[in-house]
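Re: that backbone. Tokens:
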């Protein structure tokens, strides 16, 4: 369970009071990851959910992030209430060495699972019958009679951590309305947890927090979605820096 999402700004530097960092080699393949932006549009001003990372973390300590982390093999086997929209699935499969609907689905489910692990929020739809689910965090969904619902999950961006970081991720960012919150388990966040606190903030307020560059970039993508209306057919930006050259490609 981790909120490790890519940073696309300058590489981390050693300071006098910090030990040297173990940097990833440029040839190391970034790990697949997924991140979820929960959006509350109930009031006059839309708000997003952010969590503050524990100060002891090696990767982005103390920063505010969206819930997210690595894809787990079990994510491929979790049943859902409704599948991904075909257009979103198609975009998730672009620029992959071995694209498949199963991998696109796993990416979407990873965002939902990681959100639960880090916030205690179960996102999905109530179900009278629950098929067999994988062991681990997904068991909490079955116990609450909830299945993840992927139909209204919007793929809004992708970013790869550049070389020279302590960790590298190929992260997909999703947006989902807060009405998808079906249940909550208390006590997940706190002083000793991965996320020490959760905050709902308007987008202008969120930009005043201690954020990584990629978080700010995705907030701007979210603003575009809010302004133009969310649509699965909308092109999705893909940010990366191969050989030190910044690229923004539309998927």
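Recovered sequence:
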């Amino acid at each position: 369970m981790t909120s490790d999402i890519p940073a696309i700004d300058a590489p981390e530097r050693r300071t006098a009071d910090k030990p040297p960092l173990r940097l990833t080699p440029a040839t190391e393949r970034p790990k697949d990851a997924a991140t979820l932006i929960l959006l509350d549009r109930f009031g006059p001003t839309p708000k997003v959910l952010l969590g503050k990372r524990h100060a002891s973390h090696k990767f982005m300590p103390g920063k505010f992030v969206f819930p997210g982390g690595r894809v787990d093999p079990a994510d491929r086997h979790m049943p859902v209430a409704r599948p991904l929209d075909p257009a979103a699935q198609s975009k998730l499969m672009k620029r992959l060495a071995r694209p498949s609907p199963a991998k696109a689905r796993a990416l979407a489910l990873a965002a939902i699972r990681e959100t639960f692990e880090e916030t205690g929020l179960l996102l999905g739809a109530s179900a009278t019958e629950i098929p067999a689910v994988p062991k681990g965090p997904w068991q909490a969904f079955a116990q609450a009679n909830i299945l993840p619902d992927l139909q209204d999950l919007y793929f809004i961006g992708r970013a790869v951590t550049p070389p020279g970081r302590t960790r590298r991720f190929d992260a997909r960012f999703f947006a989902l309305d807060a009405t998808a919150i079906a249940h909550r388990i208390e006590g997940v966040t706190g002083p000793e947890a991965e996320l020490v606190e959760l905050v709902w903030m308007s987008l202008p307020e969120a930009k005043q927090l201690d954020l990584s560059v990629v978080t700010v970039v995705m907030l701007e993508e979210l603003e575009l979605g809010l302004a133009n209306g969310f649509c699965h057919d909308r092109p999705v930006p893909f940010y990366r820096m191969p050989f030190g050259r910044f690229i923004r490609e539309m998927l």
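The longest strand covers residues 31-40. The CA atoms of residues 79 and 131 lie 7 Å apart.
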